[in-house]
Design goal:
Chain B: Residues 317-434 form the ABC3 transporter permease C-terminal domain. Chain B: Keywords: ATP-binding, Cell membrane, Membrane, Nucleotide-binding, Transmembrane, Transmembrane helix. The complex is a heterodimer. In chain A, 49% of the residues lie in helices and 17% in strands. By secondary structure, chain A is α+β, with helices and mostly antiparallel strands. In chain A, α8 runs parallel beside α11 (373-399) and α10 runs antiparallel to α11 (373-399). The two termini of chain B are 28 Å apart. Chains A and B meet through α2, β12, α8 and α10 of A and α2, β4, α9, α12 and α16 of B.
Chain lengths: 410, 441
């Protein structure tokens, strides 16, 4: 196929050519960045929690009365016993927060008590000896808490814990050379905390962007939080009995003590709901970007079909002349396909620059990540295929123009 | 003449229904996508108190110094909120026209009906001037007075929703509400006041929440009874004391503060006062770092707190990009459509039509496409705004609304943008050489 004649012909349709190329460039820039945003959000949404999600649910409990710390501890123990007695419940534990709650506690982590810039900012869970077992978190080194290690903590009370269990991600950050077990660190405390156990994965309580540098870095301390204004009962149902357990648990708690508050709206959540709520924004953004991508690609394809159809209609006579002079169906088809390819390549060259430009702007203004080259290459391939696909129908129609057209007036 | 051009435009558009439908669809989708994102953006970025926002200020004092920004995340920004010591000191000095320290509470309310379970409510512990500073509307009663602040009185202002739940919506002023096992006398019932964002305390609410402001009670009373804070507590170091009292003695920040300053002189006087306060504290040995205070007005404060979610801005940007791509597309199609009629233009020009007439004729045609696209866009925008609740979190999606100004804007943008897209094709059409066209025929 000779490119020269196509270029000469395009020069006679400068405006149309430029408009299609510009359209392709804009589409590439937007689609690449949108796809990248989708990818980032989906990666965020599918982060592992490290817990046994299928059988877990959470009750946010608050009492209507003002109990002392000791009274609260007794109530908690009574509630946990009530929950455990349910036939559908496997295990239950009280905690200050849980993975993917949306917000959570976090403490600066330092290796020395007087260190100024913190080494990490870890999610901070308080749990008793049943916490890990209830969540179904995998302990990969060391040991779980012993019952005698668990201390009670009233509202904003200072409790120094000598030990903690940390996640592998946190162990790797704090002790990059390995062997975290038995080592110490400080979590805004004056006394050191010794690592007694390492768990594989335990997602942070929050899912925010600020904590991205500390992803997966969580610690658990052996503390029973005893504040009447609210704590969470994490309950693990027996396999396959989640629905029954979620029905029975609040009833049993209310039967035991009715002066409590379990919010009808979000006081009782299965872990599937927890996950759904935590990533609502990300899912929404991914869907929105997906819709925009589809609409944009459809519009671009429609535009190419429309303009090429017009060009074919305009050039019926020339096509007839070429056919009369011996050009085959295939030659005409190839002509329009190649023409589109050339315009697309031109547009894509500008589009690549635009895509990186748009990304750079998003990076500086909204702290997005840098667009990887693979996305741009992927976008280029998508748009080339889209262009060729869109031009095929009008090009096929062009190739069917009979040679007799040459003799008809335009 | 315009009517004639309109007639011509409709005839021409009818002649190629496929192309016309395509253009209308493209304009419709482009406009609808951007207007839907815009409606969300408008809802979250609007001024929550436009008549007063430039007179409301948020003071910040750098009580943590360099160690507070040691993780590098906040640049050189002082803490976003105040600790108890400074909040109370600022209230005592009382240098603004109105001011209030406030913190979010989440107490339990035991309904008078013994068959009802206790309920959890949200709200704020504030000073009496909070209500006049923010022009809070009342259905019954009103705010408590400054004397109630001083006496740490057990009074409460409740919102109409809680009033409905507890008292069936009747005038409950003077009645008693049991909050965290203590009795409070109702002095006022709010008249449906639920501003978005919750601009008076973005630090503890994040700006957009589905949470309600059910109760407001005196700050001094809430501190007395040890009603804990339910919001962010940020500490540069762990408090040495225990409990809520330990928090009050610590340098942890958890109290939002707002002050009304009516003119420039008042603002600069307040700034001087705030700086003087810092210097006094420094002189007494509390700080050993340089002055680093802020006094932002409400719009600047909301901006610095990034109250508008960045997702909303990115969506708007991408949707605008989509609109531009749609317009480029429309321009290409209009160009094709107009130039196909070169011979018709040639005849009109040869019969004496000036270039201007060609311009008007084709811009009317572009405008007709734009108007039709706009009407489709209106429909799609309506669908889009009702559809965002499937996609976006409820606290944001529920704020997006269709109103007259949005409808007008949608139509205006569709028509203007399409005419803009038609400008170049029209220019090309008006340049058609009549002689050449007549000859080729």
């Amino acid at each position: 196929m000779h490119i020269q004649p196509i270029l000469v012909a395009l020069r006679r349709h400068k405006a149309g050519t430029v408009l299609i190329a510009l359209q392709i460039a804009l589409t590439l820039a937007i689609v690449c960045n949108a796809l990248f945003i989708i990818h980032e959000r989906v990666a965020h949404i599918s982060e592992p929690s490290g817990v046994d999600e299928a059988d877990l649910f959470v009750i946010a409990n608050q009492w209507g009365a003002q109990y002392s710390t000791q009274e609260t501890v007794e109530r908690i123990q009574q509630d946990i016993a009530t929950l455990r007695q349910l036939p559908s419940v496997q295990e239950a534990s009280a905690a200050n927060s849980y993975p993917m709650r949306g917000v959570g506690w976090d403490n600066f982590i330092t290796m020395q008590p007087d260190q100024r810039a913190p080494t990490s900012d870890a999610a901070y869970f308080t749990g008793d000896e049943n916490f890990l077992r209830t969540l179904g978190v995998k302990l990969i080194a060391g040991r779980d808490f012993r019952p005698e290690e668990v201390q009670n903590m009233g509202l904003r009370q200072n409790v120094a814990t000598p030990v903690a269990i940390i996640t592998k991600a946190m162990a790797d950050k704090l002790f990059p050379k390995g062997e975290a077990l038995g080592k110490t660190f400080y979590a805004m405390t004056s006394t050191p905390i010794t690592v007694i156990g390492i768990v594989d994965v335990l997602h942070r309580g929050d899912v925010s962007t600020w904590s991205a540098p500390y992803a997966g870095e969580s610690m658990v301390v052996p503390i029973r939080l005893a504040v009447p204004s609210g704590l969470f009962y994490i309950v693990r149902a027996k396999s396959g009995q989640l629905a029954a357990a979620m029905r029975e648990a609040p009833k049993a708690l209310y039967a035991e003590n009715r002066m409590r508050i379990i919010d009808p709206k979000d006081g009782l959540l299965s872990f599937a709901q927890v996950r759904h709520r935590a990533f609502e924004r990300d899912r929404g953004m991914a869907i929105l970007m997906g819709i925009i991508c589809v609409v944009l690609l459809a519009i671009t394809a429609a535009g190419i079909v429309g303009l090429t159809s017009f060009w074919v209609g305009q050039r019926r006579r020339q096509i007839g002349v070429r056919r009369a002079l011996g050009a085959t169906h295939r030659d005409i088809l190839n002509y329009f396909m190649t023409e589109n390819l050339l315009i697309s390549l031109g547009g894509l060259a500008i589009g690549v620059l635009l895509a990186f430009g748009l990304n750079l702007w998003l990076v500086t203004r909204f702290t997005l990540a840098m667009l990887p080259l693979t996305y741009v290459l992927g976008g280029v391939v998508i748009l080339l295929l889209l262009g060729q696909g869109a031009v095929f129908a009008p090009a096929l129609r062009a190739s069917r123009v009979p040679p007799i057209e040459a003799t008809r007036p335009a | 003449m315009l009517g004639y051009y309109l007639d011509l435009a409709v005839r021409s558009l009818k002649r190629s229904p496929g192309l016309t439908a395509l253009m209308i669809l493209i304009v419709g989708f482009g406009v609808a996508a951007s207007m839907t994102s815009y409606s969300v953006f408008r809802a979250v970025s609007g001024d929550p108190i436009p008549w007063k926002s430039s007179r409301l200020f948020v003071p910040q004092i750098d009580i943590w110094g360099p160690k507070g920004h040691s993780d590098g995340s906040s640049g050189n920004e002082p803490p976003e909120a105040l600790d108890y010591t400074d909040a109370v000191a600022l209230m005592r000095d009382h240098r603004g026209k109105y001011q209030s320290a406030m913190y979010r509470v989440s107490p339990s309310v035991v309904p008078p009906d013994p068959h009802m379970h206790p309920i959890n409510v949200g709200g704020h512990a504030v000073y009496s001037e909070f209500f006049s500073m923010l022009d809070v509307p009342f259905q019954f009663g009103g705010a408590w007075g400054a004397d109630s602040d001083a006496q740490h009185a057990s009074v409460v202002v409740i919102n109409s929703k809680l009033n409905q739940k507890l008292f069936g919506g009747a005038n409950s002023v003077g009645k008693t509400v049991n909050i965290d096992s203590k009795d409070y006398r109702v002095v006022g019932v709010l008249d449906n006041w639920n501003p978005k964002p919750t601009f008076f305390d973005v630090v503890n609410t994040g700006g957009f929440t589905t949470g309600q402001e059910d109760v407001f009670l005196p700050f001094t009373r809430a501190i007395d009874v040890g009603m804990g804070n339910d919001g962010n507590t940020n500490c540069a170091e762990v408090p040495t004391g225990s409990g809520f009292v330990g928090l009050q003695q610590s340098s942890c920040v958890w109290i939002a503060y707002m002050v009304q300053l009516d003119d420039k002189a008042a603002v600069s006087a307040y700034k001087d006062y705030l700086d003087g306060y810092f210097r006094d504290q420094k002189a007494s040995g509390r700080f050993n770092w340089a002055l680093n205070n802020r006094l932002r007005d409400l719009p600047a404060w909301l901006e610095s707190e990034h109250v508008v979610p960045s997702d909303t801005k990115i969506s708007l940007l991408v949707a605008l990009g989509l609109l531009i791509a749609c317009l480029v597309n429309t321009a290409g199609l209009l160009l094709a459509k107009f130039l196909r009629r070169s011979s018709e233009i040639g005849v009109r020009r040869a019969l004496g039509a000036p270039r201007m007439a060609i311009y008007v004729q084709f811009l009317v045609e572009a405008g007709t496409v734009g108007l039709s696209g706009g009407l489709l866009g209106l429909l799609l925008t309506w669908v889009g705004i009702h559809g965002v609740s499937w996609v976006l979190p409820k606290e944001i999606a529920s704020l997006a609304r269709v109103d007259l100004s949005l409808l007008a804007l949608t139509l205006a943008i569709a028509v203007l943008a399409t005419m803009l897209a038609g400008l170049y094709p029209t220019f090309r059409a008006s340049r058609v050489q009549p002689a050449l066209q007549l000859k080729t025929n």
